[in-house]
């Protein structure tokens, strides 16, 4: 799959109330959707909300037995469920070209993971949407962490530069 993916539509919005947030997450047309969550607990919570909405869905995270994970994987690939709610443990070996929506319920861990995870959508070249639902608290861990590290690094180097001054043609 190419780096240039004009068929992917990205959207970001803040979380409000989980039940309300997840109402519009899954397309009405029954097309395949992956909902990524950052923890096992949030995966289970989102899974239960979607089940209560009457959706055919599966759950996948490393805390489940191998048998349950294999069944969730197979059910999704074979269109027995419309949605899989998962941690990043779900993804390897997912070659399903017709995934129409990727949702991150919480900020992704880092930009590389985000790119890889949204890359599972629209592999057939048809339009697909990728949505991030986040809260300010999510940013303490996800994508904001590298920014905070960079900001700290820059703030240490700038004062040092100002103390020492530029070294143009010294000698």
From TrEMBL:
<dbReference type="InterPro" id="IPR001650">
    <property type="entry name" value="Helicase_C-like"/>
</dbReference>
<dbReference type="InterPro" id="IPR027417">
    <property type="entry name" value="P-loop_NTPase"/>
</dbReference>
<comment type="similarity">
    <text>Belongs to the helicase family. RecQ subfamily.</text>
</comment>
<protein>
    <recommendedName>
        <fullName>DNA 3'-5' helicase</fullName>
        <ecNumber>5.6.2.4</ecNumber>
    </recommendedName>
</protein>
<dbReference type="GO" id="GO:0043138">
    <property type="term" value="F:3'-5' DNA helicase activity"/>
</dbReference>
<dbReference type="Pfam" id="PF00271">
    <property type="entry name" value="Helicase_C"/>
</dbReference>
<feature type="domain" description="Helicase C-terminal">
    <location>
        <begin position="18"/>
        <end position="166"/>
    </location>
</feature>
């Amino acid at each position: 799959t190419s780096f240039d993916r004009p068929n992917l539509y990205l959207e970001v919005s803040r979380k409000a109330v989980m039940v309300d947030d997840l109402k519009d997450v899954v397309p009405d047309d029954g097309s395949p959707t992956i909902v990524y969550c950052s923890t096992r607990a949030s995966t289970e919570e989102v899974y239960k909300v979607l089940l209560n909405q009457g959706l055919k869905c599966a759950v996948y995270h490393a805390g489940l037995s191998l048998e349950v994970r294999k069944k969730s994987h197979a059910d999704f690939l074979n269109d027995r469920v419309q949605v899989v709610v998962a941690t990043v443990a779900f993804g390897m070996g997912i070659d399903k070209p017709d995934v129409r929506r990727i949702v991150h319920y919480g900020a992704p861990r880092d930009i590389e993971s985000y790119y890889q995870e949204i890359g599972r959508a629209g592999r057939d070249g048809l339009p697909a949407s990728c949505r991030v639902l986040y809260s300010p608290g999510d940013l303490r861990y996800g994508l904001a962490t590298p920014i905070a590290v960079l900001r700290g690094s820059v703030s240490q180097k700038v004062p040092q530069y100002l103390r020492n001054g530029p070294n143009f043609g010294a000698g």
